[in-house]
Amino acid sequence: MFNEAPVPATTVDPVPSELLAILDLFAADLGGVAFPGVDAARLGQHADEVRARARDVERAQAALDSALAALGERTAALAALAARGLAYARIYAADDAELAARLAELDAGDRPSAPRALAPTRAPLHRRRRKAEPPELPLGDVATPAEAAASDS
User: Fold this and answer.
1) I need a labelling partner for 137 at 20 to 30 A (CA). Which of 53, 61, 143, 144 fits?
2) Can you give the pLDDT of all 153 residues of the chain as single tens digits?
3) Which pTM value belongs to this model?
4) How big is the CA angle at 106 (ends 84 and 101), to the nearest 5 degrees?
5) Are the beta carbons of 98 and 134 closer than 8 angstroms?
6) How far is CA 85 from its chain centroid?
7) Distance (Å, rounded) from C-alpha 110 to C-alpha 24?
8) What region does 9 belong to: left with phi over 0, alpha with psi -120 to 50, or beta?
9) Rounded Cα gap, residues 27 and 15, in angstroms
10) Distance in angstroms (rounded) separating the CA atoms of residues 87 and 142
């Protein structure tokens, strides 16, 4: 058949069921048939690539989740340290009216509760978007659906 890695029962196969049905059709009923660029082995290779990319996405998602958790922890630690610093600064500013006024501005209600309120603000960046290019297929000369539609016209 094809180089399909077994999918554990608890894991959902990333290959959509309608495509799995076609893979099964080519593996069973059309096993000995080869169309130009399409046969059971070629379909199996592409299905294996889909599964490999899905595993890449799972690993990347796990890394992202971990990084987001670490970011949240560090942001919370920064917020606690900043609050402690402000408490000390209020005591220090008891005899400095100008500094006390600046500290009062920080306490003046309109700021969000997130620690980012202490960061300086800047104008948003305006970036040009590049036109997206269709991805290359890694397994040869199979046309993308857009290319196939264009050649049929």
Assistant:
1) 61
2) 455 555 554 578 999 999 999 999 999 999 889 999 999 999 999 999 999 999 999 999 999 999 999 999 999 999 999 999 999 999 999 999 999 999 988 877 545 454 444 444 555 555 555 665 655 555 555 555 555 556 655
3) 0.54
4) 105
5) no
6) 36
7) 61
8) alpha
9) 15
10) 65
